[in-house]
Amino acid sequence: MVMKQKxxxxxxxxxxxxxxxxxxxxxxxxxxxxxxxxxxxxxFEKALEKDWDAILSDNTLPRFSAxxxxxxxxxxxxxxxxxxxxGTIGEKQAVEAMRFGANDYILKSDYGRLLPAMQRELKEYSxxxxxxxxxxxxxxxxxxxxxxxxxxxDLVVLHKPDSTYIWVSPSVERILGYxxxxxxxxxxxxxxxxxxxxxxxxxxxxxxxxxKSILRFNYRIRRKDLTYIHVETVxxxxxxxxxxxxxxxxxxxVTEQKLAYDLLAESEExxxxxxxxxxxxxxxxxxxxNIITYNQSAGKIIDGPGSTFKSLRHSLSHKYNxxxxxxxxxxxxxxxxxxxxxxxxPCTDVIMGLHPKTEGDVIWLSVNSQLFxxxxxxxxxxxxxxxxxKQKLGEEKxxxxxxxxxxxxxxxNAPIFGIDWQGKINEWNQVCAQITGxxxxxxxxxxxxxxxxxxxxxxAVTDLLKSALRGKLVTNYELPIYTRTGQVVTIxxxxxxxxxxxxxxxxxxxxGQDITELIEYRDKLEQRVAERTDKLNEALQKEKELVAxxxxxxxxxxxxxxxxxxxxxxxxxxxxxxxxxxxxDERDKKLQKIDEQVRHMTSLLDDVLIMGKSDAGKINLxxxxxxxxxFCEKLVEEVEHSTKxxxxxxxxxxxxxxDIYVDEKLLRNILINLxxxxxxxxxxxxxxxLDVVYREKNLTVIVKDYGxxxxxxxxxxxxxxxxxxxxxxxxxxxxxxxxxxxxxxDLHHGSIELDSELGKGTTFTIKMPLHYEGAID
Amino acid sequence: MKxxxxxxxxxxxxxxxxxxxxxGYDVTTATDGYDGLQKISKANPDxxxxxxxxxxxxxxxxxxxxxxxxxxxxxxxxxxxxQAAKEDKEKAFELHADKYLTxxxxxxxxxxxxxxxxxxx
Lengths: 777, 121
Known about the structure:
The complex is a heterodimer.
Chain A: E1 6-12, H1 16-27, E2 32-38, H2 41-47, E3 54-57, H3 66-74, E4 82-86, H4 91-99, E5 104-107, H5 114-151, E6 155-159, E7 165-168, H6 172-176, H7 180-183, H8 199-202, E8 215-222, E9 228-240, E10 243-253, H9 255-277, E11 281-285, E12 291-294, H10 296-303, H11 309-319, E13 320-323, H12 336-343, E14 347-356, E15 363-373, E16 379-387, H13 389-411, E17 416-420, E18 425-428, H14 430-436, H15 440-443, H16 448-452, H17 458-469, E19 474-482, E20 488-499, E21 505-514, H18 516-578, H19 584-615, E22 624-627, H20 628-642, E23 648-655, E24 659-662, H21 664-680, E25 687-695, E26 698-705, H22 737-747, E27 751-757, E28 761-769
Parallel strand pairs in A: 1-2, 1-3, 3-4, 4-5, 23-25
Antiparallel strand pairs in A: 6-7, 6-10, 8-9, 9-10, 11-12, 11-16, 13-14, 14-15, 15-16, 17-18, 17-21, 19-20, 20-21, 22-24, 25-26, 26-28, 27-28
Helix pairs in contact in A: 18-19, 19-22, 20-21, 21-22
Chain B: E1 2-6, H1 10-22, E2 26-30, H2 33-43, E3 47-50, H3 59-68, E4 77-81, H4 86-94, E5 99-102, H5 107-120
Parallel strand pairs in B: 1-2, 1-3, 3-4, 4-5
Helix pairs in contact in B: 2-3
């Protein structure tokens, strides 16, 4: 054994000098010595709490002795070397000390013997300690093995190479129902289930195998109750002189595990068949992106029918250019499997297009990927995918159609706008932008009603859009909306509910046309039509009046003409029939009468012509410079004469100027008619008044009589053609006089006033502005 | 033979009267319906000649009145009117006028009409 480098030494000695002397003696034996000197039993007791390699002791100390120290020590440890070092020691004492367990005793005079004695005793001590340890371990081991053998769970057997049982662990009773003694000498093979007994493997199992081989077997073994349990058995050979001597078999009941495994296998098989039967492709990649496994659909989708593991692997890495939904290339690190492997995050619904490098159509896949733990503990990724080529192509068609529709809406030559359920704008095509001045980007998301509709229309339009949202069709509604400049444009629009693919209403789409100009045009047109209608009605009314007047006029005229004609006719007949019987006077009288009637008819005809002309608007003013006083004087004379001077016409003419511009013909008509009437309708009187005043370009004519007057009810009609009041009696007249006066005054834009009282007389006041200075044609 | 002649146009009234006088009739003239009615009893006419359009009481009213007077209801009436319309004639006949002459007419027409009516009676 190797000497300890350091010596722990306890010295019982009352003399420090002797202690130092002693140390000097042993120093050469160890490189380092840790020595402590004590001299009382108390100190010794305390020192023994530590481990010491050796104890040196003086024989006799004032309060202690080697014998008592030995007694004290051996109670605790019988083996620490204890050597007595003494100046004097009797033989008897020495024997006594040896009896109490001292290993040696050395006289101080014989120090030379100390070192070898210590070395010897320490060596011996070391050997003794090791032996003690081994014995102790052996003891423990034996106890454990016994325990193990009695309590072992597995079935441990020892049998000969031909499987004859030599030893069987007690656990057999629990596992197989046999007592160990019942099996000793029997063949293990006889208990194996015939279906599981594979001769090639079971008989001479270690033949040709290396000596340290351990073999594993799984089979069913028969219990005493004739049932079988599944065991997993490990066989270990025991060779002796290169000959297979015995075999140790350890069997474990794995029936439960086996059943569980079978279930697992079954479920796994089912799982695989499910995985295989689903249309979705599934591929498991390991952490290095190599394929672990895949299902049939995966092969079919990626590789086509008849796919093999090899062809699939080839197809995945070489057959396709992989593209994104927008046909741009997929970078290798963007693949879902890589993304998931790198980040640990799953990917869902990633669209991948497999674009064959040679030829063929793109296969579109929707790909999901997710991490899984490989049995090694490393991350793998499971990638599942479905073939969405049809959907994708359909989608592309729909997208193209939607794009086309969007373009159509956007570029349609009619304002098209859309709102959602909240009334927020979501469509606004170019024409809308053009009409309103607001771009789509400015209006999308804004409320149509609040932002664009005139206050007075908000409620109505809200109701309208609500009913459109309920699916009603709104047609030809005139919608006034604000433009950027604050102007209002009117859109004639139809609104229909906008539905999604499921037929649910998602908003309203309005299609219209800008009819602002049309409306303005229409308003103008309506105004014009109204104006024209008014004029037409006016004209029609006039026409009606004219027709009525004409009818009345014709009837009256015919009547008025027939009477003087009758007079003429009878007078004429009288002359013819009784010419011979008539005196010259009588003949003259008749002829005069005819003459008179002809003149009456002529004047009647003149009046009728004037009326006709004025009604037809054919009379124009022809003012000529006239001496108004002379004109009136002549006229008065004429009237007096024609009325046989029954009345005196008291005339007063007052004019700023001597000569003024008047239409003589019309003024004459006015004066003659008024004066004649005044005379005619005051037969009992002998005077009428005529007042003519010209002042500040206004001509005023007043004609006054003191005759019968005009009845109240006739005052309005008095100026109508052929209207004659009931008071006229047999007074002759054409019924046109005042009508002609009225026309003449109207032509001058003048006024005519009537002031009359029955039985007292009548006053006509005429006022006419005479603006013209020169002749007007 | 007595004639009651009613017309509001004096010049014509005179002419007719002149002719009838020459033909030997006894003529009473009146210038309107009222005038005619006032004079009818005194005139006690064998025939009445009347205008239609007259102030106050027109010819129709006059005829109606005359026909309501027992004494004169059977006196023949000749209407001499400037109204040439068919309706006026019909209305006159409805009121049992015996003859309708439209102005102007020949003196002989009037004389013949009087003779025709008086002869029939």
